[in-house]
Each structure stands twice: as C-alpha cells, then as structure tokens.
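Lay summary

Proteins are chains of building blocks that fold into shapes. Our project writes down both the chain and a compact code for its shape. Here are two examples, one after the other.
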Amino acid sequence: MTDADTLIAPQSQCFYADFIRQGECPGYNRSREEMLESIARKHVYLIRCEGQTIGTIIISDLGGGNDYLGCICVLPAYENKGIGQLAVQYLDFLLFHTRSIGLWKRLPIKTRNHYFYRKLGYAVTREYTVGNVRISYFERDI
C-alpha cells in the first residue's frame, strides 16, 4: 500500500502516448484510490532498475488456475532492453500454480506489443472491434 504513489507515475508515463492518440487509456493517470484498490485486490509488482521504479505488473487471480495480466509496462526509455521478457519470465516463476494467463490488447495503438506477446508464447483467442479500435484477447498456457 505504501507503494501506491510509486506505481502511478511509471504507468502514466508508459501509457501517455496511448492517451494522446486515443483520448483515453485506462492505465494513464490513475488516481491514488484506484491504485490502492488494485493493490488490495490484485497482485501488484514494481519493476526496478538501479533503485528506480521503471515499470509495473498487475495480475488478477481469476481462480481455477487462471490469471489475468491487467498491466505490464516498462518506461519508454527502458524498452527494447529485454526487461519486459525478464518480467514475464519472473511471472512464470511466481505463477507456477497457474494453467493460463490472459490479457486484452488494442490495435493499432500498441501493435508492437502484439509482437512482444506472440514472441513469449501468447496467442490471440478472441477479437472484437469498438469503433475503429480492434481489441484482441491473448492467452498463454503455462
């Protein structure tokens, strides 16, 4: 709970470009109350490098051996350095009891993220469109 403010800043930085492009983004500019609620109800982790918080991971336990990856983000200055891959490998270690992990991703905003998740073994299992935005559900068996 004491890390709530520490978690908000990197998420806002990570999702700022999405907010500017679309005019909305659930991960951008979360309130302290929203973050405290996430911490209370979900598994929330800081991604740290050299003492600085550079990203976050938020996971929900859906029960029955299924989890939902609500957020994984790394500050833009730290992208393309393998940090996200290490974070997902760490999740595999933490979630040894899990059968599958799912997540929703929007296109075309974060098309590069689609490549990232596919590279890590996730596959699109559902898709739908809201307005001009295609949304894909990725899932990976552990």
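And here is the second example, written the same way.
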Amino acid sequence: MKRLKIAITFDSKKRFDTTGIYCLRALKKRHDVYHYQPEEISQIDPEGYDVFINIDDGLKYGFPEHLKPSIFWAIDSHTNFNRILDRAHSFTYVFSAQKDGAERLRKNGINARWCPLACDPEIHKKYFLPKIFNISFVGNFGKYRWYSLKRNDLMRERNRLIFLLMRKYNLFTGRFYFHEMALVYSLSKIVFNRSMKNDINMRVFEAMSCGSLLITNRVGNGQDLLFKHGIHFVEYKSDRELFDYIDYYLKNDSEREQIASEGMKLVQSKHTYEKRMDYMLSFLFPWSEGRFDFSGVKFRGDYWVYEKEALLQFCKNMGKGANVGCGHRKISEKAIGIDIDKNSAADIICPGDILPFRNGELDYVVSCHALEHFDDTGRVLSEWKRVVRRGGVIGIVVPDDRIIDTLSLNPDHKKAFTPEIMIEEVERVGGLKIEVLQEIVDAWSFGCILRKISD
C-alpha cells in the first residue's frame, strides 16, 4: 500500500486513552497523519488528504459529507446505536467493532463491516515480573460502583461479579492506563473480564497481549471466531463456572501459562491496530475492476447465499461445469458435484486435485470453502485450469485470514488465504486472469473469479 496523507478525527481531551490514540499510533508508522479534534473538523482541507478517518469517541457530533473518501470505525454500537447510525450515513466506508453492530447497521441501510478491536504490542506487552496478583481487573469500576449496582445499567452485572471476586480472591482492581495497565496485567496470574452488553471489548485484546490468562464471559458476537476456549483464553457461562476456572488455573501454573502464551502469540500476530488500519484502508484500493453484485440477494441467516451468488453470477449461463468440494449442497444443480465424501451431494467421488475430465472439457470449475483444505494450492489451481477451456471460468471462495485465524478455526484447513496470497498463487500458476477479487462476507470470506487466457 502506498504512503497516504490521512486526516483522522477523534476527541482525546475527555478521554486520553480513547481507541483513536492507538489508531493514530498505528497509522503514523506507514502514513502521513494529521489529528483533528471534533471542534476542528471545519478546518480540514477537503483537497489536502487522500482519506478522512473518524474513530468513534463516544461523543455526538456530525461529520461533513463532502470529506471523501471517508472511513468511520464505530466502537460503541452496543451502547448507543442511534448515535452511531446517525453519523454512519456520512461515510464512504463504515466498520463496527462489534459483529452484531455491523449486522444491525446493515439492516438499517448502512453497508457496514465487522472490524474488531485490537491491541498495541508496544504498549500492551508482557513484563517479566513475578505474578504477585492472583487475579486483577483494570477498568471502569470505582466511585459509581454502589450507584450502578442499584440500577439496571450496563455495568451492574460486571460490578456484582467484581464484588464477589474481591471477597473470594482478593481481586486487585483500579484504573490504570497504557504501560501501567500492562504492568498490572503482567503481575497478574489471571485477568478477569465481563462484557457490558455482549461486546468484545478492548480488555480482551489488551490482557491477552500482556501474556496473562484472560478469563472472560462467553458472548455470541464472533468471539469464538477470534479465539478458542482453552487454547487462547478461557470462557465462563455462569458464576459457578467462573469460580471453578479460577480455582483450577490458580493451582495449575503450567497449563495456565501455556494458554496465556498461546493467546499472546495470536493476538500480537493477528489482532493489532496496524492490521486493523491496513484492513480498513484496503477498501480504498480494490484488487480488481470487476465486482460482485449482491443487490438482489436476500439474506436469510445463511451467509452461504452470498458466496453462492458470487459464483453463480459468472457461471450460471455457461455449459458444462464442476463444483469441487461441493459438500452437501451444490451451487447449481446443473454442476457436476465433486467430493471425497460419499454422503455428500457429489455426482463423482474423487479428490478435488485429480479431476476425471479431459483437457479443456469444462466451461467452469467452482469451489466454495474447499481450496484451503489442500496443501499445494498451485497444483490444485493448475488441475482446475487444465480441465477448463480457454475463456472458461474458475470461481473460488475461501476463508479470509485477515481478521480470523482460519487455521486455528478449523484444524482441517491446510492453507490460510488473504487477497494478497491469492494473487501470488494465481500469478505463480500463470495463464489465468483475475476478473474479480473481492470480500464477500466481512471478516469471513472473499471470492476470486479467474478467466483462463492461455494453457
């Protein structure tokens, strides 16, 4: 990605540890970045920057629609959705730190994508110090704790658990920021977390990045896509389960530290603010001129409908074709299903990298979530290219590894893909032209349409 001139806006006066601070630090490593407070937005030169970024800071204000292209990262969709929705209309690209927030924005006409929070490994790092605290909590818990316990507000459940942990385990708690927060986490055997409203909050990434065992509540908001229970962190579903896990991991040091180490490695390699900024900025530079058209697709709770439609757009009017790795549902009844599973919808049982067709016999080959199951991507693509006629189509959908760790998500996955990796593999095979390369389901999958131009 080329070096950009970026105007970023967020308030850093009311809360000096706001998410925007980490975004600013990350962007400055690769781009020329200028920070504006919300009251300074009117001073921004619309012709002076390549892109305008606004990081949600919890405040209510408008953003000029003439500043384009623009990016909005909505952080607090779980606490003040209407404020987020009002501002989102002004932006070219909208991202939500919460998966359900992105889904809710889409239902309200905003083409939003899920982009979770992250860590800054230079700040959220492990200090090799003795673990003097059994369990700690750093965050919003202080002078309002009694008030919030009496009210049905967002922090009541968190505060209730904190009081129990203080009595049972002498929980260490307080408000600490940046390096001091990292020190507290590094001194702790366990870091406790409780989301406020099904959110995957900053503490999840920050605590794991500091190399201590995170014990957090289970949420159905994409958390299981990012991390695995018992491998990267520990999830609890009830008070009893929380206390049982704490008792167990306080007694089993080696197991606790192994999980903490795996969590730290994953979060520092995949879930950093640098990677989040790269992901958002990548939408300014499409990988292909061609685009998928999802305007007529009706979502019924299954993202496969989008992946199926992406492939069908380029092969439904073609003649003979194969659906490799079709599983239990082919993208088209006319396609010849190929799979190694005898209980699948396959018409032919055989490996996907050794197809029973003559050279150039097929008009198309399509594959949805199958290519990642092969060790040698080049060999598979070469085989698909062999059986397709010149001018024919190879359509592929694979998991997107830019946010989700697709290898740990499924142990059967042999290869992780990003759009850049796909481009490299296609170029290595040769004779194929990329017509479309585009994200299909945010933080989940992307599709690639290849046209065979030579043998």
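What can we say about the second shape? The longest strand covers residues 388-399.
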